[in-house]
Amino acid sequence: MASSMVSGVEKLIRVAPAALGFSGSDLHGKHFPKLGLVSCAGNGVNIRARSKIPVLRCSLAESRPPSQPRFIQHKKEAYWFYRFLSIVYDHVINPGHWTEDMRDEALEPAELTSRNMIVVDVGGGTGFTTLGIVKHVDAKNVTILDQSPHQLAKAKQKEPLKDCKIIEGDAEDLPFRTDYADRYISAGSIEYWPDPQRGIREAYRVLKLGGKACIIGPVHPTFWLSRFFADMWMLFPKEEEYIEWFQKAGFKDVKLKRIGPKWYRGVRRHGLIMGCSVTGVKPASGDSPLQIGPKAEDVSKPANPLVFLLRFVLGAMAATYFVLVPIYMWLKDQIVPKGQPI
Ligand SMILES: C[S@@+](CC[C@H](N)C(=O)[O-])C[C@H]1O[C@@H](n2cnc3c(N)ncnc32)[C@H](O)[C@@H]1O
């Protein structure tokens, strides 16, 4: 994985195979080694590892190569995608990719340690992740923000979320003041942001000094067919890209925890829609040290209807592949004897 280079600044990072791969226990420690935890402190990059660490060269991207079409990675495309997907999101889509036990594991590094914390859930959608947040934090202190009114309508129907603030907004341009929140959470949304670095910079800005951001998102496949469909659909970042975006935004103590559905037995070659939970701590109050230009895209930006439709249909077709992958992996999990790799 680390050897598949993306364009941009090259940086030497130490990568422990145990930290970046699974080769022995499943996600609950039965058959594969424990979840990898990649930790990046300050400018240096440390990987927590138990054994000797080979040094791999990882290329860290300025941005993703434009050659990949990614048909549904723009705000208007994501808006329409969720116009339809919101109807089946909780009951049909999530069970294959984003289960309650995965959610709870992914939220652990966010350290939701007090009911009084101010929390923002960005790209909070139907509130599936927010349901995990309000187990630890009073709902009245939690704001769910999303650009899709259709997704938010589902969140509004959930009883445990009735005291949350629910607002429409853009992850790349948050309507919160600087130094506002104790925790910034965003699950499964970064893949639709045209400029992920801008979104992570916003996460930094809205957090208080010592506040923590936790971004849960996809990881890029290595198997060729899965990579083809992933790159047609949306942004599947590489692990090192998340780390670079966090560091550039100014976060310290950046860590990456691997997650995945338990029936995958740790397999990551097909990529994962929810593949990692990345956290970072804001070390100083105020705005991010990273200066970037004005926002490039808005959900209300006009688009050529024919081009839009073509992109949308192709993107939705590519997304269908990832509805089938969890079913395929589930069948393999049923067939292959426990304890063996699949
Ligand atoms: C896969 S859903 C995740 C929903 C929820 N966080 C969860 O864990 O189930 C992705 C969500 O991100 C939202 N989204 C996409 N781009 C966005 C943006 N630029 N600003 C705010 N929300 C966005 C979508 O509308 C959608 O509700």
Automatic annotation (TrEMBL):
It comes from the Eukaryota. GO terms for molecular function: 2-methyl-6-phytyl-1,4-benzoquinone methyltransferase activity. GO terms for cellular component: cytoplasm. CDD domains: AdoMet_MTases. One of its GO terms (biological process) is alkaloid metabolic process. Keywords: Membrane, Methyltransferase, S-adenosyl-L-methionine, Transferase, Transmembrane, Transmembrane helix. Residues 119-128 are annotated as: SAM motif I. The keyword Kinase does not apply. Residues 205-218 are annotated as: SAM motif III. Residues 164-177 are annotated as: SAM motif II. Residues 70-279 form the MPBQ/MBSQ family SAM-binding methyltransferase profile domain. Belongs to the class I-like SAM-binding methyltransferase superfamily. MPBQ/MBSQ MT family. Homodimer. This is 2-methyl-6-phytyl-1,4-hydroquinone methyltransferase, chloroplastic-like. It comes from Coffea arabica (Arabian coffee).
